[in-house]
Amino acid sequence: MAESILNALGAGRFRAFSAGSHPTGVVSRFARELLQSNRLPIDGLRSKGWDEFSAPGAQPLDFVITVCDQAAREICPVWPGLPMTANWGIKDPAAAQGDIEAKQRAFFRAFNELQHRLRIFVSLPVDRLDRGLLQARLDAIGKAEFAEGALA
User: Fold this and answer.
1) Angle at 34 (CA atoms; ends 11, 91), nearest 5 degrees
2) Which of 21, 9, 18 lies closest to 61 in space, CA to CA?
3) Cβ atoms within 10 A of the Cβ of 54, count?
4) In the prediction, which pLDDT does 60 show?
5) Which of 5, 40, 60, 67 has the most CB atoms lying inside 10 A of its own CB?
6) Which residues of the chain have pLDDT under 70?
């Protein structure tokens, strides 16, 4: 979801990719449905592993933002080009248990939180902030309070 949201919000300023440590091979139907209902692109989305972006010869990234709440406990790869990194710790909706409505609610919460944090991110004047201040802002976005009742 973050890939589609950031590519839309960034309006050409950013080229986002979503990847994970344990890709399932398919984009969740709940994620696709949410993106479509919010008129965000789903074309070209696919389940990707982060090894695609950390392998020798991979295109260097400017930012790597982990969003899964489990990522803080995982060992992340060394990223080519030493991008700025942050962990925003959003509860993984794919791990939600229960009926369809419970899973939809989990994806909706994650979508809203991602959208909220990514709106803050795209508002940053990244080209005018020194690396230390930019890192502090990225970290602060990860700690920003999120109102669950906020609408997408």
Assistant:
1) 95
2) 18
3) 16
4) 87
5) 5
6) 69-74, 147-152
Q: Distance (Å, rounded) from C-alpha 43 to C-alpha 54?
A: 24
Counting Cβ atoms within 10 Å, is residue 107 exposed (0-12), middle (13-18) or buried (19+)? buried
- What is the pTM for the complete model shown? 0.88
CATH code of the domain in which 63 resides: 3.40.50.2300
- Give CA–CA dist 84/14, Å, rounded: 14
- Alpha carbon 54 to its chain's center: 17
Residue type, 10: G
Task: Give CA–CA dist 88/117, Å, rounded.
Answer: 8
Residue 152 belongs to some domain of the structure: no
Supply the pLDDT for residue 54: 87
